[in-house]
Write a structure and sequence with these properties.
The protein is an alpha/beta fold. Helices cover 31% and strands 28% of the residues.
Amino acid sequence: MTEATKQVDSALVVLVDKSDASTIRQSLTTMKLIDDNFVIKEVDSTIAIPILDAEKVKKSTWFDNTKHEINELNLLIKNQKYTPAEQISQDMTLYLKQYFDSDLSGLIANLPQKWELFGDLAIIPNSTMNNSQWQDLFELITQEQEQEIWQIIAQALRVDRLARQDKIATDMMRTSQVKMLLGHSGEVEINDFGVKFWLDVTKVMFSSGNVTERHRIGNIDMSGEIIVDAFAGIGYYTLPMLVRSNAQHVYACEINPNSIQALQNGAKLNNVEKRLTILEGDNLSTMQQVYSLADRVHLGILPSSKKTWQSAINCLKPSGGKLHIHMNVEEEKIEDFVTYCSDSIAKLAKQLGREGIVSVEHVEKVKWYAPRIRHIVIDISVK
């Protein structure tokens, strides 16, 4: 008995036309009627979707006796002991063997090993399923077959939508480069420790790697404080400061219209829009509108926020305040850089007519940005 034969069993299915399969699958997923123990299968010109309850499926608004059929078929069984990556490898191998007799090793080796999840949407890396063998395969197969391949990935990851990440654009707006593979909309809502974010992954990026720093900032009590977030983006830090830190008001500087839209939607989701003012444009200009207003200024940009240090000090109230300075620094040079940063801020503060009394309150190592390069945040008190 072959490995494939061992993993086949009888399943209740609904047979639907290929052109309707994606929409109907999404409907069945929403209704919680898909039997996730089995792999979806192509049968002639239809797609067999495993289901849990025939009667409930027949009552669906889309079900048509003349177009759809309830039946029992032998389907591949999902092995729940497998990791999602192993499940993808197994399911894809079995699927491809239906159509190709050639060596599949190059294709299987390039399947996803990691991904980012945003609710019912998964984003796979640009290098995934993008080597020469996959590119040649996608030129040979039909669009329907390509969609079936993406459905196999999505089903193993238990999502309805799938996208592939490209490199983040190097333009000033750091435009997202994400292509939808399965599903049409890239809009998602994310709940991150009680803070709700909204974004369209095809238009703006979400930095999952900064999760610990978002939580740290959100845990700081900012009651009664006025904050300037110099690089607000979709509200990575703006929203935690409003929702969890209880800041009185945040002035969010942002140049990207798509990020601004995401921030506005996120503020509405969290009911904090009345405590938020968005300053659209280049922050070296917009920060001038809030000189001498802030108790705290957040400088969340990489690799360096140095160009905004002077403007940030100008934003602080005459009595002083705090800066959160994000930088990329070589691990062995962190201590020296913190000293350089502190001395530079003190010098700038004196040049701007302040006392120039500076104190480093905390240095946070957020994550590895690259080999030997750390993303750090320096919390500095300035008078």
